[in-house]
Amino acid sequence: MRAPCTMCAVNDQENVNNDSQTEEDEESLLPAWLRRTEGEQRWSVTAALLVAVVIQWFLPERLSIHPRWLMPALELLLMAALVVANPHRHIAKSGNRVRVLGLLLAAAVSLANGWSAVLLVRDLLHGSQGITPVQLLLTGGGIWLTNIIAFSLWYWEWDRGGPIARADGVHKHPDFLFPQMQQEGIARPDWEPYYIDYLYVAFTNATSFSPTDTMPLSRWAKMLMLSQSTISLLTLALVIARAVGVLQ
What we know:
Blueprint: H1 2-28, H2 43-58, H3 70-85, H4 96-126, H5 133-158, H6 163-168, E1 176-177, H7 179-182, H8 195-208, E2 215-216, H9 219-247
Antiparallel strand pairs: 1-2
């Protein structure tokens, strides 16, 4: 009586193994951006954040949240907490803590830069004494560049649930449609969007005031790109107009 039961157990195990192998084979046929991967390295995000911190530190004191060291110190503290929470070189699956810290960091950069942008616009509209065109262009350019970094972080953190969810292959429907997703053969088989891709999207949106090669699909992505274009256009127009006025 034991032999048939043993044989059934063996057959069941073989069926499970076959099903598992079939799922793995099917997943291997998917493009890299749709399947599980080891994720991306953190160096590009860290470099961009450090650039934002340096720019905020060197902005005029009147355009900074007081005390002026508060926001740069908070951002560096959140970056250190991210490293402690996920010390691996790759952005691997680490639970909700890493995602919450990442969103807080993006919010801190956005808050500090938004505050500086509002105060800069106020100065430009009401006139500011004792500022040279070079100082004005450097200040406006720094805020404009930090705005690009801030929005690139939001794009990177929200597209398909963020970097951890993308590496896990959780969400199949992209919020941003990159060219590599639309046509086979124009990119390597292991291509998937990294932070640099989102930084490029933010840069082109800030310079052309509209999407270029990457299309926003979800409503939140469209509203974010709309907000970034508006802020970028307002900042550049006022800074350039004021600089020309000072020169004259």
